[in-house]
Design a protein that fits this description.
Length: 288
């Protein structure tokens, strides 16, 4: 029996990811899935007559078997789940992984190496009381793609920076041992699919979208074990994510963040992995 699904993007992201969306639709067709693109701007949802609802262009659609949410909106994902629709990634994953503070808070105390991290509200923070030395990295908790990431080398620089940034919720982290290099591990369900080393000679950020370079990276057994330890903390919540790591001086991994709406341009450019097919096959299997 043919499965039905919604692929949700906002309008801006749908234009940027037109090729990726086409890839999704084509692979879905091969797998006998009726996958329909819905724009977030066309959806309305909430409570009506004491009951949860969701409308598309003002009309109630037949519920799909699943939703792939390529939109950072935990509230929408939770609405869909409460309407008994399976969502990938789950609302829990979306809530935790789209907030860098929540991600670190959730994974702390679980023997997962991570940078010293301070959770702050810009308007309620005194820079004189930083509990670790400079230099530091300042991040918008909801930033993506290396955007809204800054450095400060002194309390004066930090104070000035906090006046300039727009976001109120931030994390401040001790600068990593090896700036400009990180590894993204692509995960579908509980399976490690591939890893990509991203590096930059000109920037402390290694993001491919900011001009960094990339190549396939072979994980050691210790690194694989750390990835699986993180995966296990989320039970069966992952559909498709990217888990990012920095390097310690000894070459071991330091957890950095989890990308809920993971981009895969580097994987496409440097491998023959059909990540969309693998993702859709995982969804079909999990729906059985």
């Amino acid at each position: 029996m043919k499965k039905t699904g919604w692929l949700i993007y906002n309008k801006e992201s749908s234009k940027i990811n037109e090729g990726f969306i086409t890839w999704f639709i084509e692979e879905a067709t091969k797998l006998n899935i009726d996958l329909r693109l819905l724009l977030k701007e066309d959806l309305s949802y909430g409570v009506l007559n004491h009951r949860l609802f969701i409308l598309h262009k003002g009309v109630t659609l037949e519920k799909p078997n699943f939703v792939i949410s390529r939109n950072n909106d935990p509230l929408l994902s939770k609405q869909l789940e409460d309407l008994q629709i399976k969502v990938y990634n789950s609302a829990f994953t979306s809530d935790i992984c789209n907030h860098k503070g929540k991600t670190h808070q959730f994974l702390a105390n679980k023997d997962i190496p991570m940078l010293d991290t301070l959770f702050i509200n810009r308007d309620e923070f005194e820079p004189n009381y930083l509990p670790f030395p400079y230099p530091v990295v300042v991040k918008d908790v909801t930033g993506r793609g290396g955007n809204e990431v800054f450095t400060a080398s002194s309390v004066e620089e930090l104070r000035t920076l906090l006046w300039k940034v727009q976001a109120k919720e931030l994390i401040i982290q001790r600068m990593g041992d090896v700036p400009g290099r990180d590894v993204r591990v692509f995960v579908v369900g509980k399976t490690i699919i591939a890893a990509i080393l991203r590096y930059s000679d000109n920037d402390f950020r290694a993001n491919f979208s900011l001009g960094g370079k990339a190549r396939l990276y072979e994980l050691s057994s210790e690194q694989q074990a750390l990835v699986h330890k993180i995966i296990d903390q989320f039970d069966d919540e992952f559909g498709f994510v990217g888990i990012d790591f920095l390097f310690a001086k000894d070459g071991s991994f330091i957890f950095n963040e989890i990308e809920d709406v993971a981009g895969s341009r580097t994987l496409y450019a440097h491998s023959n992995v059909n990540i969309v097919k693998l993702y859709l096959e995982y969804i079909l299997k999990s729906l059985e």
